[in-house]
Prior knowledge:
Number of helices: 8
Order of helices and strands: HHHHHHHH
Oligomer: single chain
Shape: globular
Number of domains: 1
CATH architecture: Alpha Horseshoe
Mean pLDDT: 75
Strand content: under 5%
Amino acid sequence: MLQKADSQDLLPLTWSHSAKQPAVGDWRPNSFYGRPKNEELGADWKKAIRCIESRDYHHALSLLRKMTLAPQQRNVLGVCLLRTGAIAEAVSVFKSLCVASGTTWIRPETPTCLQINFATAVLLNGSPARCLEVLAGISNPQPAMCQMLRDEIQAWSKGLPLWKRIDWWIGHVEPQNSRVQLAFEPGVWE
Length: 190
């Protein structure tokens, strides 16, 4: 269920690991994201929020791409990219937010929601093994979304031909062009 946002509902930007994960598809603009200091950005941000509330992710993307975004707002951009099918661009956004420069490991201070979104992006980009690797490193797992991603990978692996399934089970060797289909909207807002 979507909640309407007005300007007084927007709270300051904070990283919150203790907040309960909303149901998949819920949009809660007053919890994780806030009012930017720049008034011009604030007006565009509010328009983008309205577009997201109405599930018009393409229009929200066009607004978000024009703005200079804080990390929390770049998460919104990344989720919109996931939901519009721009997976490679979403991987790039989340990689810049999660992965330490010049390495392949996740920064320890990375919020759980960003790690889940990065895992989702690499999964949809054809790397279920990397997705499981990222999920395994989450120190404060959000069981609902983490488990949903694991379940989708397990269902995908059951549909592989026998030898490819054996390769997957033994060493997480991914077949070429591995595409896992999700039964839910990708990405978490917070």
